[in-house]
Write a structure and sequence with these properties.
The complex is a heterodimer of chains A (632) and B (478). Chain A is built from 25 helices and two strands. Chain A is mainly alpha-helical. Chain A folds into four domains: 1-73 and 80-137; 162-270, no CATH class; 277-541, no CATH class; 560-631. Chain A has a two-stranded antiparallel sheet. In chain A, helix 8 (213-230) runs parallel beside helix 13 (278-300) and helix 17 (394-409) runs antiparallel to helix 18 (411-436). Chain B has helices at 2-19, 23-46, 50-53, 73-92, 101-120, 124-145, 150-178, 186-191, 196-213, 222-229, 232-254, 259-284, 290-310, 314-345, 356-359, 361-374, 381-396, 398-423, 439-457, 460-477, and strands at 54-58, 66-70. A two-stranded antiparallel ribbon of chain B has the order 1-2. Chain B is mainly alpha-helical. Chain B has a domain at 261-478. Classes of the chains: A mainly alpha (632), B mainly alpha (478). The interface between A and B is large, with 63 and 70 residues.
């Protein structure tokens, strides 16, 4: 079965082509059907592959399709690698992808047919690119998918292209990603120069065979800079909140569940290199933790339902990087998975709310929606409990695993991480309370139109809610029940080399229980506090002041980047254009030109002074010379 | 024999075009001629038979020159590019009207003949002859059919390139004088033994001409003006094909003959190229005129190609040879879209455009595809070349590569800015009247799109076509 792995990206590619080329022909129903069917087909194949990978004694399979770049000693194959890590990501991408495609058929239904087709066309292209990213058997194929998903993200953020702000957000996303991509590219060149290959298997085995720490630290840092762009970490995170300009299902699929986790995938895939570079691991842990805290603090003061979720995503991605930084690869991948479920659920729930509210996204103008949309309410509640880390929902297990490894690494990391988790619980229950509890604060007209969403929207919500609630049981920690961490056992072969080199530090079970108990109590207190405080929210109060204002303005990071980077570069470009290029270089050339013309005029008794005449004479002379010599 | 046909067909048909009275007849005749040349180009690129790929005739033999043509890998890919380009140009501008059509189309064909000659000449004097022959029709086309400032601008263009050519001619004669075999033949010149000082002097005499042609910072100021003022059809030939004369010149006539000088000056040339890449990219995003923006973008791209040549690595050379073709195809694609906009709306100013995605969706989609190729997105043909060239540059020096890499980011900045200003946003009074592309333009752009994707996913044929040249150069360098 794994030999047929090329079918997985092939289906969405076909869907992209068929929908794209026939965008003016197909009806919306047919377009939606093609879009969903292709991704579902990929999902089915992915499940079959996963089942094969799951069997004991499975060894990773590399499927070579053709020579991509091959000459001299350079040989980069277009090849896919099927192993535990890639098969798990296949499931997440095609599974969540299918649900979101189904959801979109309803959510985007008011678009005109050719825009509807354009949407599904981009979405299928995204799934294709994302599958390339995780399936590639070498860094170049990963890079192809990496930039491909960036393109789709750009196209989908700017989907409603008549809006200038949305276009700007799309451009910002692409360009910030490209900054990371440049580092990634240099990292690939370094890998190629150092190991003579970009294939994962060659690189990892040669790295274990002996490589200096400084080299591997340099390589891993460059790859990590690439990851900060794609996975929205400090300093390249500011594009993700703006990316909420795209349609909400896009935010769910690309900017929460899949694309933004590409950086985590990349580092988990390269775990051997990172284990060899402890300095880089330290950097990752610190950057991840800082991002988690910073984004969580901003989320507390946001009033746009999607912005809260966006900062929450940045924050959760930070936790995943914290996990990677302390060597908890399984924990990070586990959190990728549970986050894909509960964050996709939350975004789709938000979409359902926005749909019902007629496009309104400000939670200050919502409230009391619980009564009008029961399915959305219940599923959103499940998502909120899951992300807050309340047992036994999935977020609890994955976050607990990351934090407990952080504790084993350094208790300070744990304390700061826990502080972030408390903020998470606070802002999520604030969001829940302001949206669904209390009194409705919108207009009468909006209230009149409030309704539960149709089945195409609620069914994906229910499926995701079940997953968000239950997926945690795949990773029951050893201190609760030995040998019950199914995911860890499944992924063990991928991380085996790293675990051999550097076994993870163990914490006594008693300490684990104490930490877990304390953190759950604190999280519950924060949740209850936020619920109590914001269920009574009646309307926009006075303007935020002091610290709250700083948070509301996102720590002024956008303004800082604008002042320190964007404007100086613009100024430099303007200076070069106006002074160096036009007055300087071109001025010199024109001066010389005038001098020539002037002297030409002085001796025009002999010559006409026109270049044309000279050339004509020259041509005639040369042609005559040529013909005479050649034929006579 | 094929090699000779590649020059003779456009030369003879071009001369015939001058005699045609009717404009439409000239148009159709030249189109047929260009298709015939394309057919021969494909045959020449595919045919590995040595007798088809070389031609030798007597010409100025008492001087030690000969009418000697040879198609190697680089020649094959450039011949193919030249053949395809003229068809793209003539078909996509089929509905445009030009004054004095028989002269216009005749000159277009003559310029193709000159270009073919430059790419095929295996004799120094013959190379110089074609070098000038390619320049002159383009000069007349720009000054006769160009924009308002055409006289001033083409004068600058002419003086610039003419000065370069003259220095090269002196250099060629000097090199000839140093050749004990008293021959202009390429393989004989490859055997000339030169002292380091002679190499250094001769290197600059040749390189200045090529640097102006490419152009390399700071010899580039003729280019944005010329691209802007020339009719877009001529700009396509200039930017798609003619700039490759400079690169071919360096790869065939400088690197193998003056290898020590190349090594000696590699830091100077790569430094200029890399600075030029970033400089041109920065200036590109201050442009409002579409043609000037593409011109600066092209300076950045050509700078990378020049830097990769001087990095003297196999990967870099291979990247350049592939990119010679891909860059030409892609930039012509951009020009076709720009010409379509200008012909319909009478403006090239981005600030006056916007909303074309609503009024002209086909144009919008194709512009996006051309733009993605312009930023070398993976799975477009440009990625292959850029990846290899950056790797070559990396192998030379990581810091040059990292600085040049800024153009990857800046390229996205100015290209996406252009896309946003032209096709996104709301349509205005002017752009709401925009009709979509005509069939001929759609067909050409679809063809280009296919080449972009096919060679982006499967570049193998381009490697096989050009690798012999790479091996030959690397052997010469050792």
């Amino acid at each position: 079965m794994s030999q047929l792995v090329y079918l997985v990206p092939l289906f969405p590619l076909v869907g992209f082509l068929v929908i794209g080329l026939g965008r003016n022909l197909w009806s919306k129903t047919l377009t939606g059907l093609i879009g969903c069917a292709t991704v579902l087909a990929s999902f089915v194949v992915s499940v079959m592959i996963f089942n094969e990978v799951r069997t004991p004694g499975f060894t990773p399979v590399t499927v070579k399709l053709f020579d991509f770049i091959h000459f001299g000693t350079l040989n980069i194959n277009f090849a896919f690698q099927v192993d535990q890590l890639s098969s798990l990501f296949l499931l997440i991408i095609t599974g969540v992808g299918s649900l979101i495609h189904i959801y979109s058929t309803s959510y985007m239904h008011e678009e005109k047919p050719h825009h509807f087709a354009r949407y599904f066309c981009y979405l299928n292209l995204f799934v294709f690119s994302m599958l390339l990213l995780v399936l590639g058997a070498n860094y170049v194929i990963m890079f192809i998918g990496w930039e491909g998903v960036g393109l789709c993200s750009y196209l989908l953020i700017g989907f409603w292209f008549t809006n200038g702000d949305y276009n700007y957000a799309a451009r910002k996303a692409f360009i910030m990603n490209r900054i990371g991509d440049l580092a990634f590219l240099i990292g690939i060149f370094w890998i190629l120069a150092q190991f003579g290959s970009v294939n994962y298997q060659d690189v990892f085995s040669r790295a274990q065979g002996g490589v200096t720490t400084s080299v591997v630290t340099g390589i891993t840092l460059l790859l990590f800079i690439g990851a900060t762009g794609k996975s929205a970490q400090i300093p390249l995170y500011t594009w993700l909140p703006d990316a909420m300009a795209g349609p909400t299902p896009v935010s769910a699929l690309i900017h929460a569940a899949t694309m933004v986790t590409a950086g985590i995938y990349m580092i988990a895939r390269s775990n051997v290199l990172y284990t060899l570079a402890p300095a880089t691991e330290g950097v990752i842990a610190v950057i991840g933790l800082c991002t988690a805290i910073l984004a969580a603090s901003i989320a507390i003061q946001q009033n746009d339902i999607k912005k809260v979720l966006a900062y929450s995503t940045v924050s959760q991605l930070g936790y995943m990087f914290l996990g990677l930084g302390v060597g908890a690869y399984t924990g990070a991948v586990f959190h990728v998975m549970t986050h894909a479920f509960f964050k996709a659920l939350l975004f789709l729930g938000a979409g359902s709310v926005i749909h019902a509210m007629g496009g309104e996204q400000d939670i200050r103008k919502m409230g009391g929606l619980r009564k009008f949309m029961p399915v959305t309410w219940i599923t959103f509640l499940i998502g909120t409990i899951a992300i807050a880390g309340i047992p036994p929902f999935s977020g609890f297990f994955s976050k607990d695993e990351i934090l407990s490894h952080a504790y084993a690494h350094n208790p300070v990391l744990y304390i700061i991480g826990l502080f972030g988790a408390l903020m998470t619980a606070f802002y999520m229950f604030r969001l829940l309370a302001m949206t669904f509890l209390g009194q409705f604060r919108g207009t009468h007209e909006q209230e009149h139109h409030l309704h539960e969403s149709p089945a195409a929207i609620t069914i994906p919500l229910i499926v995701l809610a079940v997953l968000a609630a239950g997926a945690g049981f795949l990773g029951i920690p050893a201190y609760m029940h030995p040998d019950a961490h199914i995911l860890e056992k499944f992924l063990a072969p991928v991380f085996a080399a790293s675990t051999d080199m550097k076994p993870l530090a163990e914490t006594p079970a008693g300490v684990e229980w104490a930490l877990t108990g304390a953190s759950v109590v604190l999280i519950l207190i924060c949740s209850a506090w936020a619920l109590a405080k914001f269920a009574k929210f009646t309307g926009p109060g006075k303007e935020a002041t002091g610290f709250a204002k700083i948070l509301e303005n996102k720590w002024y990071v956008d303004e800082l980047y604008d002042a320190v980077i964007v404007r100086p570069i613009n100024g430099l470009a303007g200076f070069l254009n106006k002074y160096v290029e036009r007055l300087g270089l071109d001025g010199i050339v024109n001066g010389i030109g005038r001098l020539v013309q002037y002297s030409g005029r002085q001796i025009r008794l002999l010559q006409s002074g026109q270049a044309g005449t000279y050339i004509l004479l020259m041509v005639i002379g040369m042609v005559v010379l040529f013909i005479v010599q050649l034929f006579i | 024999m094929l090699a000779l046909l590649l020059i003779l067909i456009p030369l003879v048909t071009g001369c015939v075009t001058f005699l045609l009275k009717q404009g439409s007849a000239a148009k159709i005749w030249s189109l047929l001629a260009s298709v015939a040349t394309l057919g021969v180009s494909i045959a020449a690129a595919v045919d590995k038979d040595a007798s088809a790929r070389t031609f030798k005739g007597d010409w100025l033999s008492d001087l030690g020159a000969s009418f000697s043509l040879h198609i190697d890998g680089m020649g094959a890919i450039l011949v193919l590019l030249t053949g395809i380009s003229l068809v793209l140009v003539l078909v996509s501008t089929y509905h445009n009207t030009y004054k004095n059509p028989s002269v216009y189309y005749g000159l277009m064909l003559l310029s193709q003949a000159g270009l073919m000659g430059v790419f095929l000449a295996a004799d120094g004097l013959l190379f110089y002859f074609f070098w000038e022959l390619a320049l002159i029709p383009v000069y007349f086309l720009s000054s006769g059919w160009g924009g308002e400032r055409r006289i001033q601008v083409t004068f600058k263009f002419f003086i610039y390139t003419f000065v370069g050519s003259l220095i090269m001619l002196v250099g060629l004669l000097y090199l000839y004088a140093l050749n004990p075999e008293s021959s202009f033949a390429l393989e004989s010149l490859y055997r000339v033994h030169l002292t380091p000082d002679q190499q250094d002097i001769l290197f600059w005499m040749f390189f200045v001409a090529f640097a102006i042609k490419m152009p390399i910072f700071p010899f580039h100021t003729w280019q944005p003006d010329t691209y802007e003022q020339s009719p877009t059809s001529v700009t396509m030939i200039l930017s798609g094909v003619m700039v490759k004369m400079g690169l071919l010149g360096v790869i065939r006539w400088v690197v193998p003959i003056f290898p020590e000088a190349v090594h000696h000056f590699e830091n100077v040339v790569i430094g200029l190229s890399v600075v030029g890449m970033v400089y041109a990219s920065l200036i590109a995003f201050r442009q409002d005129d579409l043609k000037r923006m593409v011109a600066y973008s092209s300076i950045a791209h050509i700078g990378l190609m020049c830097a990769a040549v001087f990095s003297s690595s196999q990967i870099g050379f291979q990247g350049v040879l592939v990119q010679l073709f891909n860059h030409g195809i892609n930039i012509i694609g951009l020009w076709i879209v720009i010409d379509a906009i200008e012909q319909r709306l009478g403006t090239r100013k981005m600030s006056e455009l916007g909303g074309l995605a609503t009024t002209a969706p086909s144009l919008a989609i194709l512009l996006v595809i051309m733009s993605l190729a312009n930023v070398a997105l993976p799975l477009t043909n440009a990625f292959i070349g850029e990846f290899l060239m950056f790797d070559g540059l990396y192998q030379f020096n990581v810091w040059y590569m990292a600085f040049a890499g800024l153009s990857i980011i800046l390229g996205a900045v100015y290209t996406l800015r252009m896309v946003q200003m032209v096709i996104y946003g709301k349509e205005n009074a002017l752009t709401s009247t925009m009709p979509d592309l005509k069939l001929n333009q759609k067909l050409m752009l679809a063809g280009i799109t296919i080449l972009i994707i096919v060679y982006g996913v499967y570049p193998e044929p381009l490697f096989r076509m050009t690798e012999e040249t790479v091996h030959a150069i690397i052997a010469q360098l050792k």
